[in-house]
Amino acid sequence: MPLEDWIIFTGFWALFVTIPGPNALNCIASASEFGFRKSLVCVAAILSQATFFLALTILGLSSIIINTPETLIILKIMGIIFLIYVGIKGLIDAGKYTQPKYSIRSLFVKSFLIATINPKSLAGYLAAFTIVVNPEVAIGTQMWVIVPTALTITCLNYTSLCAFGAYLKDKALTVTLNIQLRRMLSFCFVLYGVALAFLTI
Q1: Angstrom distance (rounded) from CA 34 to CA 38
Q2: What are the backbone angles phi and psi of residue 100, rounded to the nearest 5°?
Q3: Cα pseudo-dihedral 135, 57, 30, 101, rounded to 10
């Protein structure tokens, strides 16, 4: 991959992952609930999803999704419904605050689903690999550069968001403040889902 194309991809990817979305909200919410180290499960899930999507691109399956609008619409609707569900459940659970129970499996699955079926993620990956990837060059050759770049930027971004969430946890020392923080983050999930519904359907 030429240096100019790599710089364009790096800039696009950095912008894509740093624009706040469901993954960012999930990292902040999980860290504010469970602490920094435990919230890194979210980062692992996001990196797993990124690897999965990059593998789909290498196999050429992303072009099938692009050329099948019905599939894309179904995935977007699933993502919107899931985000709103996560937000409403968080709002309900925030009011009856108890010491949160930590499960690596449930947090990983939730984070992986948020990363996989949210419309922002789908749109970003499709844009990246329809704009940046050169169809005249073997996809495998380009991926030797794209994959490490994408995963490194993704890891750094979401790890820093987990650190920010842990910082908020330390600041919300009282139960009342913690409940308010959880309500605010849950409301953001609902808001994001509703906004995406109007923007993508």
Answers
A1: 6
A2: -65, 140
A3: 180
DSSP state of 19: S
pTM: 0.72
Residue type, 74: I
In tens, the pLDDT along 140-167 reads: 676 777 788 889 999 999 999 999 988 8
- Which residue matches tokens 């991926």? 143
Terminal Cα distance for the chain, rounded:
35
Judge whether 90 and 20 are in contact, CB under 8 Å.
no
Cβ pair 133, 142 in contact under 8 A: yes
What are the Cα distances from residue 192, in Å, to 45, 73, 87, 91, 152?
20, 17, 9, 14, 26
